[in-house]
Amino acid sequence: MNLESNQVTVNKSATELVAFLSDVKNFEQLMPDNISKFEVIRENAFVFALKGMPEIALEIKESLPPNKVVLGAISDKLPFTLTAAIDEVNEQTSNTQLHFEGEFNAMMAMMVKGPISKFLETLSSNLAKL
């Protein structure tokens, strides 16, 4: 299953945005209001939970300044990646789009598509507010 957020403009250069997204503690600022847990578990990993949803642990799999940061699920139960594709507009701003790629059976994909789409849009709109 592949999902994409809308592209948003962020008031940070591409290099600054990659640095921001490569620091996992910064993801707490991007989370939706209905977050029930956020905890940094390692220098490059965090766990979060939204109300009514199971905990999800993510780690930074790849950071390629100035254009990409890839996070991936730590658990093999729900294998997926979340990629921030970043394009620099000028020295103060960049455009970014989030890409979700997961391997789910058809039933699971149906159940998670709506919540994940909403989650991606929340993350991207919170990025635009930085």
UniProtKB/TrEMBL annotation:
This is SRPBCC family protein. It comes from Planktosalinus lacus.
